[in-house]
Amino acid sequence: MRSLSLIPVLAMAAALTACGGGDDNKSPGATTPPTTTTPPTTSAGKATDKYAGNYVSVCETSEARIGTATGPFANSLTRVKLTAVDGSQLNAEIQEDFYADTNKTCSGSPLHTIAYSKSNTATLQGTKSTKLPSGQTVTADKLIVVQNPIGGLSSGGTISINGLVLPGNYFTRGSTTKAIASLQASRLHMRFAGSSTPVDADGYPVDFGSYYLTRQ
User: Fold this and answer.
1) CB neighbours (10 Å) of residue 37?
2) Cystine design at 141: which of 19, 73, 151, 182 (Cβ 3.0–4.6 Å)?
3) Which helix (H) or strand (E) holds 80?
4) HEC profile of 42-73
5) Largest separation between any pair of C-alpha atoms in the chain
């Protein structure tokens, strides 16, 4: 699973992810009679509402091995449910479905499913102009993504679960990461700051990589 920090995930990111602060996040203006006032938004605003929903990653190689610590790597799908908490924050529920290494499309019933902490968050920090891998210029949302560990499991050695062997710290990882996100049609493009990711002066990724989630 990629980083949310488990997904380059997530929150997932994630990932996972929200929009706000820039021109593309403003609600369309409305002309009202002089005697009418428009009340302020007091609950989940448009900036986060448009991202609320269920998303799934492409089928990809996971960190889990099949059978033994030296067995083949399992494939996996990452599923993310984003819920608007308020106008600036999203909650992310993350689940990972594991499949055999020979199942390159992650189809059928998974070998095992892991549900991660439900208290992961993504908080809006404004916007920036950047580019997708296609070269298209888009307005991306800058986020602070907090992924909380499941906890209660060993952080050393390996963990075996239903024929899958995972790194010992797989469930104890937690992170607070800067990320960018942009929803284009049904694709939620995300990228997380990391040691191998070019970042700007504020610590956010310079542009998007190939990672994305698809809205279901």
Assistant:
1) 8
2) 19
3) strand 73-84
4) CCCCHHHHCCCEEEECCCEEEEEEECCCCCCE
5) 72
- Give the tokens for residue 111: 């070998």
pLDDT at residue 88, as a whole number: 94
Contact 144, 120 (CB under 8 A): no
Task: Supply the pLDDT for residue 73.
Answer: 98
Query: How many Cβ atoms sit within 10 Å of the Cβ of residue 48?
Result: 28
CB burial class (10 A; 0-12, 13-18, 19+) of residue 55? buried
- Mean pLDDT, consecutive 10-residue stretches, the chain (216 aa), reads 41 36 40 40 64 97 95 97 94 95 97 87 96 97 90 72 88 89 96 94 97 97
What distance in Å separates the CA atoms of residue 205 and residue 189, rounded to the nearest whole number?
12
187 CB-near residues (< 8 Å, 6+ apart): 212, 213, 214, 215
93, two tokens: 């529920």
Rounded Cα distance, 72 and 198, in Å: 31
Say what the pTM is: 0.76
Instruction: Give the list of residues 6+ apart from residue 210 with CB closer than 8 angstroms, or none.
Output: 133
Contact status, residue 7 vs residue 17, Cβ threshold 8 Å: no
